[in-house]
Amino acid sequence: MNIVVLVKQVPDTWSERKLSDADHTLDRASADAVLDEINERAVEEALLAKEAQGGEVTVVCMGPERANEAIRKALSMGADSAVHVSDEALHGSDAVQTARTLAAAIGTLESVDLVIAGNESTDGRAGAVPAMVAELLGWPQLTYARKLDTDGQSVSIERESDAGVATVEANLPALVSVTEKINEPRYPSFKGIMAAKKKPVSTLSVADVGLSADEVGLGSAPTQVVSSAPAPPKEAGVKVTDEGEGGVQIVEFLSGQKLV
Amino acid sequence: MAAPTTARPETPPASPFSLNEDQRAIQETAREFATERIAPHAVQWDQDKHFPVDVLREAGELGIGGVYIDERFGGSGLSRFDSALIFEALATGCPTISAYISIHNMVAWMIDAYGDDEQRQRWLPSLCSMERLGSYCLTEPEAGSDAGALQTRAVRDGDHYVVNGVKQFISGAGSSGVYVVMVRTGQEGPKGISTLVVDGDSEGISFGPEEHKMGWNAQPTRQVVFSDVRVPVANRLGEEGIGFRIAMAGLDGGRLSIGACSLGGAQAALDKSLDYVRERSAFGVKIGEFQTLQFKLADMATELEAARMLLWRAASALDAKASDATRLCAMAKRMATDNGFAVANEALQIHGGYGYLAEYGLEKIVRDLRVHQILEGTNEIMRLIISRGLLEQQS
């Protein structure tokens, strides 16, 4: 079966992340860029399915030239090839435009059976792109998967939400988004690292995927970021002085926060 | 569903002072494995004298068991230079584990370099995956630096050798499945030595009690005792009498690896110190504000970088089979292990009383790195090798 994994390069969660003052887009120069961790899990799940069913894993990524490092990581884990949509015109694209671009890029590939994505990125955190891509492709969407099974004809997942766990099934082709509970991703092997640079990566422009430059990017984005501000510094928490009632007070606090 | 392919830019040539994209990726992967799978347990393994065979198997999946072994036999096919990056990175998690893995690699390399295809096929795949572990048996109770004087005898009996003798300070002994053993098959001196590969479950092989050591507690060190062990002649690597040459050939790489392990351990100690001086306050300021500590840290970083550059130079020379590789490897081993120990010891001092506590992991690094100045040829032997080369040039 042919599996596409959507991957994104994001600023390292551990580094300080900033938005640029001019247009409120991500200041990519200010932080180390890495393959989003949730995407490593998506790649792992695709590799497991490939190992069980045979087929190929193709990574699809939208991002600036530098995102080839994230692609390389996915290839070194064992993905077979990659499509990198890279175009100046994409700068500032919102979730809808990103989904259109990714869906169009998937459209350039033949006979895709399954698309796997992370449920949300650690930077934008809109959590909307996988569902939008499925909608644009006209495929079933199975989101928030903590477990995935496929026999090559259909796919079944355990979908976990605040409301509980549901088992959801669909015929292929379909799109699945995974949560961080899905698996523990493998480390790339040294052989995988050396093999990665020999694997085919096709770099496509917006025109190559059949879109025009004025459909994407900051200027025509359906949603606009009007303003942004740095997160306020952390404030000191509530202090409870134990005068014999400390335990009760803590439980009251926690239940007030709906944590117990 | 192959997508159209476009050419990708070639990796630029490696500068002696920087790493290319592949090397950075390899280093990063080894570092990640060390940080996530080794470092969190290193102090506990040291305290419990626990040899984490399960974690070694996991490392095997990355290709760490046969870093510079032929890919046809399950190896990763990388260079000695790459292996220096890998062993340094692993040693940031635990120098002892990294050092054991480097010894295991040397065992596999001896089979790869001197074995025939049948022998390579028989032993290398399971060594590369670390399904079976390897031990290297050269040193004897009465033969350390003077390895050419070893006494373990192998007497030919039909299609077998009958091996008798004792090997000393053997890393991994008792846990390993494959032992590369230097034995005397002929005359006294270096020319009478041959190399046998002995399976760990051979009849007549036994192991001494675990040595109580200052450091290197996360790997077992024991005697290996051979009593009438019958080893097929087919297990001999190369011709009779080339054993000492194999041993010497292994040492250059072994010295690089041990040097790299010292760099990694010392780097971890320096990194811990940088964190500590930013957090710890005394006399109303963070102790990192004191110039005495700033200067100390500057010297530590400089000493480490200097040793690293020399080690990289030696590794490149070994990969290029340069005629001065042996001397450069000796220089690099001497400097990396001396500087590494000194840096780790300074790091302990910076941590004050906490550095002396096991919990902080500093005293463990100091204890682990101390033995690197002794093994793979003592640092005095290194000076002997270096000065011999110098004096010969003058004459």
UniProtKB/TrEMBL annotation, chain A:
CDD domains registered for this protein in UniProt: ETF_beta
GO molecular function, one term: electron transfer activity
Gene3D superfamilies: HUPs (3.40.50.620)
Region (Disordered): 223-242
Cofactor: FAD
Domain Electron transfer flavoprotein alpha/beta-subunit N-terminal: 23-213
Classification via SMART domains: ETF
GO cellular component: cytosol
Presence of keyword Transport: yes
Protein origin, superkingdom: Bacteria
Entry keyword set: Electron transport, Transport
A Pfam family it matches: ETF
Function: The electron transfer flavoprotein serves as a specific electron acceptor for other dehydrogenases. It transfers the electrons to the main respiratory chain via ETF-ubiquinone oxidoreductase (ETF dehydrogenase).
The protein's assembly and partners: Heterodimer of an alpha and a beta subunit.
Family, similarity comment: Belongs to the ETF beta-subunit/FixA family.
Name the record gives this protein: Electron transfer flavoprotein subunit beta
Top-level taxonomy: Bacteria, Bacillati, Actinomycetota, Actinomycetes, Actinomycetes incertae sedis
UniProtKB/TrEMBL annotation, chain B:
Molecular function GO terms recorded: acyl-CoA dehydrogenase activity; flavin adenine dinucleotide binding
Active site (record annotation): 376 (proton acceptor)
Necessary cofactors: FAD
Family the UniProt entry places it in: Belongs to the acyl-CoA dehydrogenase family.
Biochemical pathway: Amino-acid degradation; L-valine degradation
Keywords: Branched-chain amino acid catabolism, FAD, Flavoprotein, Oxidoreductase
One annotated GO biological process: lipid metabolic process
Lineage per the UniProt record: Bacteria, Bacillati, Actinomycetota, Actinomycetes, Actinomycetes incertae sedis
Every Acyl-CoA oxidase/dehydrogenase middle domain range: 136-229
Pfam families the record matches: Acyl-CoA_dh_1, Acyl-CoA_dh_M, Acyl-CoA_dh_N
Protein name: Alkylation response protein AidB-like acyl-CoA dehydrogenase
